[in-house]
Amino acid sequence: MSKEILKIETETSEQLYNYVNAKLLGLICEEPDPLANLANAAALLYLLLDDLNWAGFYLMREKENALVLGPFQGKPACTRIPLDKGVCGAAARTGEIHIVPDVELFPGHIACDGASASEIVLPLMREGRVLGVLDLDSPLRKRFSSEDGEGLLKFVETLHKYVAWDDLF
Question: Is 60 inside a domain boundary?
Answer without folding.
Answer: yes
